[in-house]
Amino acid sequence: MPSSHPQPHFNMSTFTSYSTPPPNARFSKSWFQSLTVDEAIRIPNYPRIAPENSLKHWVFGPDVPTGARATTIAPSEVVLSNSDLAPIYKDWERSYNEDGSRSVYVSYTVDGEEYQYIQLIKLINNYDDARKQFIRLVDYLEHPTAMTGQAGGLVGPLKACYFLEGLAGFYSTSCPLYKLGSLLGEQWVHEDIFHASCEHEYFR
């Protein structure tokens, strides 16, 4: 078990403010929003997501971890999957408000994580698929066979877009750019892409 630390005084009135990582923290939502597509697909040593059922045990605790380790994810670090963390996500706000919990102790490869650290892991999971979709899309557009049409001229502008940017120019469709990756290969086309295509055809 990790050693206990005295709980310091802090002015955080809500669970959201306490659990939200600093905007400048690597892998925070603000950090992801600041990336272009090109920067996102070239992130060195992106954390690896552990297979499901890697979490062995967890319990909430009152201690507030200190130091950089509490809110820093190292390059190539192995982090838990969202599916393993689902029961923690479901109960952590209640435990924060009702039990005074300020951390969660997990048993997999490390012991004891601060709420902001867990939030970073959640964001890494949330945007992992988007990053992979962009990698596939850029690889396709940069492939010689894609240069026969106008695809070659799309690579530069696409890479310059922000990682979490949405498709522009549509009236009723709200869709992030990364979902364009569902158009590649033999896979289900995302519903938002289908709606955007229908809207485009309607207004032609």
The gross shape turns out to be: elongated
The averaged pLDDT comes out at: 77
Question: Number of folding domains?
Answer: 2
Could you state the order of secondary-structure elements as H and E?
Answer: HHHEEEHEEHHH
- Helix percent band: 25-40%
Which structural category do the helix and sheet elements fall into? Answer: mainly alpha
Uncertain ranges:
1-12, 192-204
List the total number of helices.
7
Q: Cα distance, first to last residue? A: 64 Å
What is the percentage of strand-forming residues?
A: 5-15%
- Report the strand count: 5
Largest sheet: 3 strands, antiparallel
Strand order of the largest sheet: 2-4-5
Q: Rg to the nearest angstrom?
A: 20 Å
Q: Give the oligomer, counting copies of the same chain as homo and different chains as hetero.
A: single chain
